[in-house]
Design goal:
The protein is 50% helix and 24% strand. The protein has seven helices and nine strands. α1 packs parallel to α6. It is elongated.
């Protein structure tokens, strides 16, 4: 059952009732209990979100599919309406946006690259998430977050076995704060996603090495075939001509070995 408090806040409730009967068997009164189960339902939902992400990531075979699954699931959490995934450039230490959802093109263009010295990237290297609240009115006029109208953001490192792979970024145009319980779940989702991305990368690298080995094998077989054609085959042809000539000479002489020469 869904109800609203006096302040307009929506809550989820469960009800139970019991009838009390008199000696004549008639109902004298009924008492009931109304229980607010909003928090319990919220926790159940957050646990389901984690399970759903685990299933979808187990089926992902490419980083792009993993990013889409991660954003699909993360944006089901109440209040969040936009997000993206950054990948780390191991050479430069900078991050580049690899997938995004729910933000304008101009915002994406402004934040497509995050330099290695960016404070969020540095915090991510330390394994620390960054949860921020923003009041657009207090930001500089040309600040991208003010122009986009974002009120709260989360920047979560995607790390696997102490190695930083990138970052999950989420935000809200409606909520001024990401609740603490949601923060905990988002960190768990980021950890799940990092493990899946590492697995997909390892599988991709294995497939690349397998393709390399097959290409090397094909080239080696082609080289051996060419060597046989250019070397051994020509020698055999030359021997065949010599054997044929010998057979002809022995046959003219009626030599008893002419039969052997013919077989050769």
């Amino acid at each position: 059952m869904r109800l609203k408090r006096k302040d307009g806040t929506a809550i989820r409730c469960s009800t139970s009732a019991a009838a009390h009967r008199g000696p004549d068997g008639q109902v004298d009164w009924i008492d009931g209990v109304l229980e607010d189960i909003t928090e319990r339902k919220r926790y159940e939902f957050l646990l389901q979100v984690q399970r759903d992400l685990g299933v979808r990531l187990s089926l992902a075979t490419s980083p792009a599919a993993a990013f889409e699954s991660l954003l699909d699931i993360a944006l089901q959490i109440r209040g969040l309406d936009c997000g993206g995934v950054y990948l780390l450039d191991g050479a430069s230490g900078a991050m580049r946006l690899a997938a995004h959802r729910g933000v304008s093109r101009s915002f994406v263009e402004r934040l497509l690259h995050l330099p290695a010295k960016d404070h969020r990237v540095q915090r991510a290297r330390q394994g620390q998430p960054v949860f921020s609240q923003r009041e657009p009115r207090r930001l500089p006029p040309r600040d991208p977050f003010r122009l986009e109208g974002l009120l709260s953001t989360a920047f979560l490192p995607l790390s696997h076995e102490a190695q930083l792979l990138g970052a999950l970024v989420l935000g809200s145009h409606r909520e001024a704060e990401i609740p603490a319980r949601s923060q905990v779940v988002l960190e768990a989702l980021a950890a799940q996603a990092a493990g899946a991305i590492a697995r997909i990368r390892a599988e991709s690298e294995q497939h690349r090495l397998q393709r390399q080995l097959l290409e090397i094998s094909d080239r080696e077989q082609a080289r051996i075939g060419q060597d046989i054609h250019d070397g051994l085959c020509q020698q055999l042809v030359s021997l065949a001509f010599d054997a044929n000539s010998l057979r002809s000479e022995l046959a003219v002489q009626a030599h008893p070995q002419a039969v052997v020469a013919q077989r050769i």
